[in-house]
Amino acid sequence: MAEVKLFGSSGSPFSRRIEVALKMKGVEYEFIEEDVYNKKSPLLLKYNPVHKKVPVLLHNGKPICESVVILEYIDETWEGPSILPKDPYERAMVRFWVKFLDEKLVRSIGEEQEKAKEEATEFLKILEGTLSGKKFFGGDSIGMVDIVANFIAYWFMIPQELAGIDVLTKEKFPKLNEWMNEYLNCSIIKENLPLKDKLTALFQARFQAFAAAAAASVK
Amino acid sequence: MNLPRNRGSFGPHLLIEDEVDWDQVVQINTRIGEVKLLGTQSSFPCARIIWALKLKQVQYEFIEEDLFNKSPLLLKMNPIYKKVPVLIHNDKPVAESLVILEYIDETWKPNPILPEDPYERATARFWAKFVDEKCVLSSWEAMKSEGEEKKKAIDTAQQMFEHLEKQIKGKKYFGGEQIGYLDLAIGWMSLWLNAMEEVGQMKLLVPEKFPSLSEWTHNFIRVPVIHESLPPLENVVSYFQGGLDYLRSLSANKS
């Protein structure tokens, strides 16, 4: 029986975050794919009764929920490259940006089109500013902010190409676009996790479902 | 306290009486003026920070903000959210109360407020996040809504409290025998929730439904550090009433 299990979903950026972190630390784990849209497993509901969501990390039979909480747990439990910096002030800055990403950016994606575009643009500008002179948010190598910012690739870059939504253009956000390329091409991501093609396929399927639902509801 | 400027290495030639505990003086000296807290007396996120600083015996300067007329310092130190609390340590700002709590714990090591064990830390962080994202919001919703909506909102809030009730059962504090990070995070349920209940004319923390959680609130406010820093209830009531009136005036202006 594997010591470490991850309940997740390949289409979920939140669950991907945990996979990146586990790979960084070289931790062996069993991935349990959850069908989050149709039917969640009894185990998932048992281990995350409060939110009933992925990801859930199970370590020695004990569950940890909420991707950001799991990332800190992984950093504290296993040796290897640091996910958070060592200095308390830098750690505070990382935690601040992580909260900003999850509370502001993720939320702005859930809203209606025009308002979402405005808000997202404003927040992305702030983020673009923090990349000054750095390859990654974490400096020379990826850190917690890079891991948490992964959804930018999921929800902006790929849908942008598919549906022509032009929020994160190269003209407006040169540094963020560069960051996305660096992130998707860095060894941890490239060698271990599904590439753009698979993500694109996943999104295409999801988009078709949405388009069909939207067409049906307009009637 | 005025210490002579050229103290050198605190040698015996200094102009201070012998009875002075020199170590203590050095400690006080390095603490004062180094730590500032921008906040308001009635805000519970600010209270969290005050409690933590007091538990760690860190000297700090409290700067009261007028939230309707924010100071240039606040706007400079927290440009993204423009909110309190903001901790300024050696001129460097930290914003977001839970982030500040962790920073305080990592910077001043004596009297740790987070548990040592990684799994327990994860558990504390999970529940603190839950409290801020679900409990506070749902209580606020219940406070400001009316009629049928209010009933539903009260129901939702109480469902959230259920989870906390389970967590505190059989324990004196969320932190165990002594208060810790999670107690500070949930501390608003001791006084601020009372104020919300008064403003919203409702009862959320019903003792019959939440006996352990209710008992915890009584234990919490009796902790000396907490007890001596609680703002008067009527101030917090005015604070929430003011906030509610402001929100209502905004929506009235829109329509």
UniProtKB/TrEMBL annotation, chain A:
Gene3D superfamilies named among the record's database cross-references: 1.20.1050.10, Glutaredoxin (3.40.30.10)
Keyword Transferase belongs to the record: yes
Superkingdom of the source species: Eukaryota
SUPFAM superfamilies: GST C-terminal domain-like (SSF47616), Thioredoxin-like (SSF52833)
GST C-terminal domain: residues covered: 87-202
Enzyme Commission number(s) from the entry: 2.5.1.18
GO terms assigned for molecular function: glutathione transferase activity
Entry keywords, A to Z: Transferase
Pfam family, one: GST_N
Positions of the GST N-terminal domain: 2-82
Catalytic activity: RX + glutathione = an S-substituted glutathione + a halide anion + H(+)
Family membership noted in the UniProt record: Belongs to the GST superfamily. HSP26 family.
Full protein name: Probable glutathione S-transferase
Protein's organism: Abeliophyllum distichum
UniProtKB/TrEMBL annotation, chain B:
Pfam families attached to this UniProt entry: GST_C, GST_N
EC category: transferase
Keywords: Transferase
Catalytic reaction(s) noted: RX + glutathione = an S-substituted glutathione + a halide anion + H(+)
Spans through the membrane: none
Superkingdom of this protein's organism: Eukaryota
Positions of the GST N-terminal domain: 33-112
Keyword Transferase belongs to the record: yes
EC number in record: 2.5.1.18
Gene3D superfamilies listed in its UniProt record: 1.20.1050.10, Glutaredoxin (3.40.30.10)
Domain GST C-terminal residues, every copy: 117-240
GO molecular function: glutathione transferase activity
PANTHER family: GLUTATHIONE S-TRANSFERASE (PTHR11260:SF614), GLUTATHIONE S-TRANSFERASE, GST, SUPERFAMILY, GST DOMAIN CONTAINING (PTHR11260)
Protein family according to the UniProt entry: Belongs to the GST superfamily. HSP26 family.
Protein name: Probable glutathione S-transferase
Species for this entry: Abeliophyllum distichum
